[in-house]
């Protein structure tokens, strides 16, 4: 009896040890998988990022991705200073910015999107904007909504005798880069004046914080005009205009129009930095752009890097299938295949 008692006691001890070891192993695995990533930058991307980061975290218990939608300029500053694990921008970093960064970075295209001219003109829901007219409105050369040049392209619109109030971004912004990159291509006066960049010396207007800040001003201010990423116009029920493209066709922003603009890129640069504003093609929407994640190639611990690489591959496989629901255009399949190689090569 005593022998059996000792035998059962031994078994119990072994079982307890195994159970304890199992718990420790599970805890260790959970701890290894638990990672918190931080990012900052583009408000252009924030709607799709909110969806992606939430879904990825839900499918990967212990992983948390926190993103600050502070504008592309702020995102570049934070990621180049090593304050966040990744950045996001709608305007590619310049050679000078990349050289000055204390962190070596690569650009990973995330989505394609459109910037649209939004307006609040009482009694008017549809407008067409010729490229030179759009530039001169933001330059302050066209200051009233019943100006003859606007009326010429909109013969059916009842344009009021109302001053134009320009609204632009207050902070460094990739959306501003896209818009000013386009205006620099279609207007010499713009190119030789404010030029292209994420932060400009604006000839006139008031600044709104983020795409949502600009949209908020437009909703509240009759006679105003501004520019935002397409989804912000749709979500806020703000009218946005058609723009005449390089082929001479009037085009309203759409997924198909952005896709057509992206198709103009015949040879993607090795570093993925490319402009597709004012792209050729009958159906191309002219104020289209890629948006990029800025990924460090050094300085991160192995566990954090593993999670970041896994997220990027998840984004390219599953995340891209969801972008159209938020009015972004998906990346071309050929580009996705190439990006997978880039991500896999991250050490």
UniProtKB/TrEMBL annotation:
Coiled coil spans: none
Residue stretches spanning the membrane: none
Keyword annotations of the record: Phosphate transport, Signal, Transport
Signal peptide positions (record): 1-34
Organism (species): Acidicapsa dinghuensis
Protein name as it appears in the record: Phosphate-binding protein
Family matches, as PANTHER family: PHOSPHATE-BINDING PROTEIN PSTS
Oligomeric and partner information: The complex is composed of two ATP-binding proteins (PstB), two transmembrane proteins (PstC and PstA) and a solute-binding protein (PstS).
Record-linked InterPro entries: ABC_phos-bd_PstS, PBP_domain, Phosphate-bind_PstS
Gene3D superfamilies from the UniProt entry: Periplasmic binding protein-like II
PBP domain boundaries: 31-316
Domain of life: Bacteria
Functional description taken from the UniProt entry: Part of the ABC transporter complex PstSACB involved in phosphate import.
UniProt similarity note: Belongs to the PstS family.
